[in-house]
Write a structure and sequence with these properties.
Layout: H1 2-25, H2 33-36, E1 47-55, E2 61-69, E3 72-73, E4 75-81, E5 84-92, E6 95-101, E7 107-109, H3 111-123
């Protein structure tokens, strides 16, 4: 009897492991409206043309477009504030690689610093 209980536990464990692996390997290929209207997040997404519309911590009305690959930001992202492109950000496996900030002339920056510069330029009345 003890042997059949052990076998049953092994079968249940194998079935649960298979379900967990299957659940973790499936990605959404479309964004829900809630995800579109939130800050950039590729968790559980695998798609080209992902888009986000949100207000950042500086009050900028941000639209971002890019690629989600296996739940991570990967590739080039275009960042717009009120319809004007303000940054181009390259991600690799969810890590920011480089950012071209277009505020006050194109220059290298970080995404966070660039968005701060956008907010400062908008306070000063510059487009």
């Amino acid at each position: 009897m003890g042997n059949s209980k052990t076998n049953m536990k092994k079968i249940i464990f194998a079935a649960l492991s298979a379900l967990t692996l299957t659940a973790c390997s499936s990605y959404e290929r479309h964004q829900t409206p809630d995800r579109v209207n939130a800050p950039m997040d590729c968790a559980m997404l695998h798609m080209r043309g992902a888009q986000w519309n949100y207000v950042d911590q500086y009050g900028n009305n941000v639209t971002a477009q890019g690629v989600c690959n296996k739940g991570r930001k990967h590739g080039n992202f275009a960042i717009y504030v009120d319809g004007a492109m303000v940054a181009k950000v390259k991600f690799s496996k969810d890590a920011e690689q480089k950012t071209a900030c277009l505020v006050g002339g194109q220059h290298r920056s970080t995404f966070a610093k660039c968005m701060e510069e956008v907010a400062q330029s908008r306070k000063g009345g510059n487009p």
